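User: Hey, my collaborator sent me this sequence without any context and asked if I could get a structure. I don't really work with proteins. Can you help?
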Amino acid sequence: MVFSSILFMFIYLPIVLAVYYIVPARWRNLWLFIVNLVFYGWGEPVYILLMIFSICLNYVSGLLIGRYLPARRKKAKGVLILNTVLNLALLFFFKYFDLVAETLSMIPGVDIPALGLTLPIGISFYTFQTMSYPIDVYRGDGHVQKNFIKFGTFVALFPQLIAGPIVRYKDIAQQLDERHESADQFAAGVERFVVGLGKKVLIANNVGMLWDVYANAAPGQLTFVGAWMAAMAFSLQIYFDFSGYSDMAIGLGRMLGFTFLENFNYPYISRSVTEFWRRWHISLGTWFRDYVYFPLGGNRKGLPRQLLNLLIVWALTGIWHGASWTFLFWGLYYAFFLFLEKMFLLKWLQKHAVVGHIYTLLVAVSGWVIFQQTSVSQTAVFFRAMYGFGQGGFCCGQDLYYLAGFGTMLLIACVSCLPLGRDLFNRLPQKVRTVAAPVLLLAVLVISTAYLVDSTYNPFLYFRF
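Assistant: No problem. I've predicted the 3D structure and written it out in structure-token form, which is a compact way to encode the shape of the chain:
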């Protein structure tokens, strides 16, 4: 089930909210736990069992670690290590087994059959989310949750279950015990949800159609202009798709009394790759920082060790996104630019803001080409065309046709990914904003609904991770 669907918006969500606010507060977590599992199992009911196993595994691990601490710290550490291995083993089996099997089968004499398993939706997100709980308990950063329903509600909470933001237990532990819903908070949640819906349906889906035109173009068909239009289209599509989902998740959380941390902060205004990754998918970046980078030593053991830690983190970040070697290359691609910035480039970029902004956009847009393509050869086709070495030349009639058709949408998307619109709106008199805001939100809701009525299945891009 996806947020941007008629089924979710006009059947599932109204029922969930109606019952949630009717039942006494002490029963609300139980209700959420039930509807969370319904939401998750809507497409593949069998994977509800996997979700329940993950909940039980980490719940019991948290109890054992809490029991052993502080007197028997070695036993607590043993439980933590076993829990981490089991979580990663599940993730590896469902997400990476076929990739490893196919790779090893390329060796003469080795034949490991692929299993062809359907990837459980959101397994990368909820695996990282559940793993953070016993780690935080072991570190003393979070308390042991003895109520199974509350813990299960945290793991399977439907607003952020499928594609984040990655919510750590310690960030909402108090909210699981006691939440204070209010009309203002609910209204703010509705507003945020509609904004995210508009990002996904009105912008991401439309600019994504331009990428689809060029995605698999042959070397002789892809021009310089076409390659850059396509790359820019996907860069905008993935931003509005994923930030739109995050907005909708944050909004849904507010409707239910939860406060989730922000996941995006206008990444395309960044002036360095370092800044870009502090603004993009913030919850994933902070997860790797706190649970991988810092434990490895961070930047406390000298520059060579810091660069090694960055290499490890970005190799893991790349492969986390998908079972394809192109994702690993994508992670190493960003590690390379972060190396340069750590060694000398960042200080120079901070003194040359315009150059820094152009450089960051070039790196990010080129990076999304690696991210989206499923083969190195097709990535190479795009790069050759984008940087003047392609076979298709500079421009062709097809490019002009699509530029005329999508030019306005691309311009709207470019402006919308900047804080300019927000700042201009906030400068309007309060009375004008009070009237304009609900009118604009209603228009976005109505137009988005019209698109959804006439559309087919349109999942979020990050659902595959």
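In plain terms: Residues 277 and 358 are 16 Å apart (CA to CA). You can pass these tokens on to your collaborator as they are.
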